[in-house]
Amino acid sequence: MMGCLYGAKAVFLFQLTWPENIFYGLLVVVFFVFLSIISGKIDVLGGLLGGLMAFMLFLGGGFVFMGYLFLFFVLGSAASAFKISTKEQKGLAEKNKGKRSIGNALANGTVASVAGLGAWLWPEVHAWFHIALAAAFASATSDTLSSEIGNVLGSRYYHILTFKRFNAGPDGIVSLEGSLAGIVGSLIIAIAYSLVAQDNWGLLVVFLSGIVGNLSDSLLGATLQWYGWLNNHMVNFMNTLIAAVFGVLLY
After folding, report:
1. What is the arrangement of strands in the sheet containing 165-166, beginning at the earlier edge strand?
2. Whole-structure pTM value
3. Is 162 in contact with 149 (CB distance < 8 Å)?
4. Helices marked H in 82-125 — which ranges?
5. Alpha-carbon distance 12 to 113, whole Å?
């Protein structure tokens, strides 16, 4: 019995196809990790985990899938750095001037990287995994831009469930400006997907999934996180998972 299991495992691994340009992919991953760490945008552990996630994406879709991570990282870092002094004065800035950590990497990248690995392991449903990872990145980007930009450009802030006026910052508090920024973030990822996949229906699916994920983040923030049952990283993970599942079901 054990011999049969080992034999099946060996056949399974033998049938997997490694990307032809895997050496260059590894070089890009190493460069990405090195650059992100020395730039101060992420700590060492977060950078190393980000590198592993980037490689998982590369296995599933080469440099194209890695491009989603790069796009999210650039947009998220830019949004965190946007008017950082104003955020610090208001007490709304991320810790360590927005420097990402291993917690951020796990929360925002786990779903997408697992989808990338799935696309490599099960190429017959590659399109579904592509939708899932694009939707997850659309949600993560939408959430990051809506909170980081909304906290400094928002004119009025409301509790998403009661619509009562609040100050910026608490969980589940939204603004029109932040919501618009989130829509733009989701649209950017959706356009990137469409350019790659040449799939107009997929563009709409990814865009809507990003919005649904961002909305779920606010709703979870106003409920489970508000009462301390979830922390911010858990909520971020949940919104990407919800977006990915929604995207696959809609697709």
Report:
1. 165-166, 157-159, 173-175
2. 0.88
3. no
4. 84-90, 95-98, 102-121
5. 21
